[in-house]
Amino acid sequence: MTCPNCKNQMRVEGNEYVCSYCGTRVNKPQQSNNILSDKYQWYAFIFPLLGFILYFKWRNTDPAKAKTVLKISLVSLIGGLIIAVIGIVVAYVLKINGYDVLDNSLMINFITYKF
Ligand SMILES: [Zn+2]
Q: Can you spell out the DSSP letters for 89-108?
């Protein structure tokens, strides 16, 4: 980073660039804000609702992060719905073929006899 005032090299000092020659201080661009930490990515993936809350929390202050968290939440939510639909379809197909997946006795038979 070169000093906008005197064009000398600036050094990093905390969250700022400081010019050693003229003392000009420039705020460091907050790149880290645009990168969603792994922790929040997992939160958004496991709890899409939390992701949507974070989206509304960050929407104005940090649009890039808000967009990422929204994307992850939507993928998680849509993925979850697709898996749920597949589960229902599989259960339905099994049922019309005579296997009642919700029948506890079948499950108990399965556990006690098959293993
Ligand atoms: Zn300077």
A: HHHHHHHHTT--TT-HHHHH
